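Form 12-C: Joint structure prediction
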Amino acid sequence: MIEAEFSALPAHPSTPVPEETGGLEHIGTIAAKVFEQLAQPPAYVLRGLGLFEMYREELEYLGASKWLVPSGTKPDLKYEVRVGIRRESRCECIGFAHHKHCTHVVDATIARRKSAVCDSCGKRHWWSEITEVFEDNGLLDWYPGDRLCRVCIRFGAWA
Ligand SMILES: [Zn+2]
Ligand SMILES: [Zn+2]
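Section 2 - Result
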């Protein structure tokens, strides 16, 4: 009876004794951690959100998906951020060079989502300053889906 002999051998001293519910508890802990990560964005995303709230009026759109974003830590320092739509986003700060992500990219990505380019002046404005043209408006100069900023409308572009 070889099998019986093997099972009768004492466990190796370094072999940890498995507890009855140990395995299940472990899986539960991992699941909880994963869930926590899903529910709470990483720290740099939260900092990027904060940066946007603080400096949204100082953000400058340079065109061609490029933004000038305040560093957030050093006064007067701004970074050029390129928000990737089909390619990867990039920032010239040292954090991005190390981690491939940074608060400035998060900041500029939010700014891009919250703004649109006016079809009349070609400048980027916050959505709150933009009016979209609909078929019902019956405008002759613009097509449905075109976007006009408040300034252009004030100067008679809505026609
Ligand atoms: Zn950066
Ligand atoms: Zn405009």
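Section 3 - Comments
DSSP finds six helices and eight strands in the chain. Residues 79, 91, 93, 95-96, 102, 104-105 surround zinc ion (ligand 1) (CB under 6 Å).
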